[in-house]
Amino acid sequence: MHKKQVGAQTLLFENVYIKAGYSLCGLKEDDGSLKGQFDFVMQDDKFGEDTFEKGERKMFEIAIEGVLKKAQFKHADLQTVIGGDLLNQNVSFNFALRNTMQSVLGLYSACATFAESLLLGSVLLSGGFRNNCLCVAGSHFSTAERQYRYPLELGVLRSPVSQWTTTGVGSTVLSSETQNISIIAATIGKVIDYGIIDANNMGGAMAPSAVDTLLQHFKDTGTRPTDYDLIATGDLGKLGKNIVMELMAQSGYMLGGNYVDCGDMLFEYEQEVFQGGSGAGCSAIVFNSSILNGLYNGKYKKVLLAGTGALLSPLTTFQGESIPSITHCVAISTN
Amino acid sequence: MHKKQVGAQTLLFENVYIKAGYSLCGLKEDDGSLKGQFDFVMQDDKFGEDTFEKGERKMFEIAIEGVLKKAQFKHADLQTVIGGDLLNQNVSFNFALRNTMQSVLGLYSACATFAESLLLGSVLLSGGFRNNCLCVAGSHFSTAERQYRYPLELGVLRSPVSQWTTTGVGSTVLSSETQNISIIAATIGKVIDYGIIDANNMGGAMAPSAVDTLLQHFKDTGTRPTDYDLIATGDLGKLGKNIVMELMAQSGYMLGGNYVDCGDMLFEYEQEVFQGGSGAGCSAIVFNSSILNGLYNGKYKKVLLAGTGALLSPLTTFQGESIPSITHCVAISTN
Hints:
Two copies of one chain form a homodimer.
Chain A (H helix, E strand, L loop, with lengths): L4 E2 L3 E3 L4 E9 L14 E2 L10 H19 L9 E6 L5 H6 L6 E4 L6 H14 L5 E8 L1 H8 L15 E2 L2 E8 L5 E7 L14 H20 L8 E4 L3 H14 L8 E3 H5 L10 E2 L1 H17 L5 E9 L3 H5 L6 E10 L1
Helix pairs in contact in A: 5-6
């Protein structure tokens, strides 16, 4: 039997393959650096529904149908759906799955939810408990903005350290049947809080957590940053990315040109999103478009995806609390 | 290698043992049918903090420390914490784990979260990915009431079909080292919605989901209700429990005197909680007191715990949506 754990926080997998990935986003996301790489671009932020929330739910429905189609799966072939979203009580995810007859595991680790879903999906498959599963996470700018910050109608000026919640849903079908791309390991993160209290500065709040999990992953697995063709943090944005590079260098792990941040990658400077993208959909759509394409076409052989989540709520912000964060990372390799 | 899955939705485990359970609750919970069975009873609903939310967080901290002590674990012995709560963005759970240096997996399936944590904890252990983990879930009447319904200060009359959110946190340490009690199987639930729109009537909304998962579990495992000494649904309350009994009987599975509901069990008629207890803490504290005691003292040999969760949010209620629900069940056996 192969080894299933290494170091303090890292799990090792075998026979976990990526069967298909699917990304759905809004017009603004498709107008950035990754233009043309997404499977589906919504022409209208409400997706033809009467509220943004119902639009977000429909995004989940389409992303689930879309990845099943790409995986050539019928609904009856799929064993379990695992994932979540940012809305209170995970309603976009759960409502999209109403009466679909799928068994469902709901997760919440903010913008690290997609990485958590790949991690736990890999545990289910590698352990032999499921033969396949669908991992999915997403977010919507307009629903998140009014839930976490201000109603859009108020027209509040955005802070220069702020990020732009991604409107997008990314979905991945994992299978125990051999494919070209495997999930080989994952590191479960800790809840880290360095005392940042500015709810606009998510990148700064999440950076120490990303560093903690990346260092742990390298230590547990005995790898170095140069062992990966791509290291992608979830959605720290430009500011958070720079903090990560500095803190990693201080710990003796220099991150070079193979280090990107999904939030920083997604948008371009001219789009006025300040530090870049954020939201549970950010790493989910970047992974299921650009990163997966790079794995398929041979640009990358080994990728480390580190989903980063800020675990705040408006209530904790009102009560003057700082922002704890968590980062789960997943190592992906071509065979 | 033993079989890891059976039927459509059921996982089979080996080498997953319950090392210790711990229950913490409020005065009202300790004044009901299970008086004297809890490990810790708070004398003050704010637990000495300045808000109910901070009190709820402290409940999680104490329940985590308490179960580690009972399991004779040091913090460094524990590999992973898995669970969640009902507050927006799982903040009681996540904030309680800030800077504890534990690796953490956050879940959300409303009041089914405790059962989901036992399910995924068992997957981690049975698959060999962890040697131990701590499963925890909880809720607080005063934080849930103001989040989901009305501020307490408004003094709104309660509906006769309503339930009372449990103030309590239950925690369980699972270990792969042999103990007397094992988790042997679990069934992952579907998101079921029969169209109930009254956010006060959770029992009615959740009952069809409980029936769906129980029937699936019996079908997948080839067992009958009489094979269990105790079948406990999470928190359907009296009304929901009666609906479950009727629907199960219609499907040819008569539930007898071995069927209880944790919400119905927890409180007594004189406590004016109408249909009984609810909340993620309900099944968590009933399991970690009365049910676990019954397993330890030989009253029960085989128990089926079916955590039931109503997947609504105030926003979906305002938008006129019905209430989807999910039930995950876990089979526990003495050796």
